[in-house]
Amino acid sequence: MPSDHHVEVVETDSHTLVTIPCLSDNYAYLLRDNTSGNVALVDVPEAGPIKAELDRRGWNLNQIWLTHHHYDHIDGLPKLLKTHAAPVYGARADAARLPDLDVSLSEGDTFALGGLEVQVFDVSGHTIGHLAFFVPGAKAAFTADSLMALGCGRLFEGTPALMHASLEKMRDWPDDTLVCSGHEYTVSNAKFALSVDPDNADLKQRAKDISTARAENRFTVPSLMSLERATNPFLRSNDPALRAAIGMADATDAEVFAEVRKRKDSF
Ligand code: ZN
Ligand code: FE
């Protein structure tokens, strides 16, 4: 393990959330229900850093949740299962491309991690069958490459309309929800966001905070839902100032989203 390896932790009486950097810019997450001691892992970019963190904390692994089929979210699974066997949860709709699932999930399903309820959302767009996991009792949502910190995932498989509908499902989560997304992309996301929403004071402040955090090697993920609503251009299709800035005052929200996503693709 490199000497600069670090994780970031949110700990309350009820739960512990550990953010683990993997590969070059991915994040995996451990969520522990502190009442039962049950632990879930969200995504497995690589086994090494996740094993190290579980072993360092002396935690067993009870559930593995997969958000989508891309290699940088599942590649470490076979190796991890050899030492930390646990049932694997993922999208029924994408079972053919995911590793073998023990629990197949669809939109609207719920399940439990100890005393915590987990709500399943189909947030297709980046891929078809991409899931998000919302855990109200932990004030955390695991969104991987759907809703991302100050961005959203590239549309490899879905249409802009589909991704817009997926983001609409997430936009009403409470302000204090921590959005646990899949990558450290906020430096480039901030440059783009300012290009379509240049007069947004909250966004300008967030861009400064991101620069400071990265200069100090701190993570900018997870992020608060309140901050995403105030600054993430992909959640702001209905904002008059953003619409005016891109010359789409009279378009529908979905059309504005499609245009912003298109601009990001060639930014
Ligand atoms: Zn992906
Ligand atoms: Fe990814």
Task: Tell me what the structure shows.
Helix content is 32%, strand content 25%. The protein has helices at 47-57, 71-74, 77-83, 160-170, 186-196, 201-215, 225-231, 240-245, 253-265; strands spanning 8-11, 15-22, 26-33, 38-42, 63-65, 88-91, 103-105, 110-113, 116-122, 131-135, 140-144, 147-148, 151-152, 178-181, 223-224. Helix 1 (47-57) packs parallel to helix 3 (77-83), helix 4 crosses helix 9 and helix 5 (186-196) runs antiparallel to helix 6 (201-215). The protein starts with 7 loop residues before the first strand and ends with a helix. The model has no long low-confidence stretch (mean pLDDT 97). Bound molecules: zinc ion and fe (iii) ion (FE). Fe (iii) ion (FE) binds next to helix 2.
Question: Any key phrases for this structure?
Answer:
binds fe (iii) ion; 7-stranded mixed beta sheet; 267 residues; alpha/beta; binds zinc ion; 9 helices; 15 strands; 6-stranded mixed beta sheet
Topology:
Blueprint (H helix, E strand, L loop, with lengths): L7 E4 L3 E8 L3 E8 L4 E5 L4 H11 L5 E3 L5 H4 L2 H7 L4 E4 L11 E3 L4 E4 L2 E7 L8 E5 L4 E5 L2 E2 L2 E2 L7 H11 L7 E4 L4 H11 L4 H15 L7 E2 H7 L8 H6 L7 H13 L2
Parallel strand pairs: 4-5, 5-6, 6-7, 11-14
Antiparallel strand pairs: 1-2, 2-3, 3-4, 8-9, 9-10, 10-11, 12-13, 14-15
Helix pairs in contact: 1-3, 4-9, 5-6
The structure holds zinc ion and fe (iii) ion.
The site of fe (iii) ion has 6 residues, from α2.
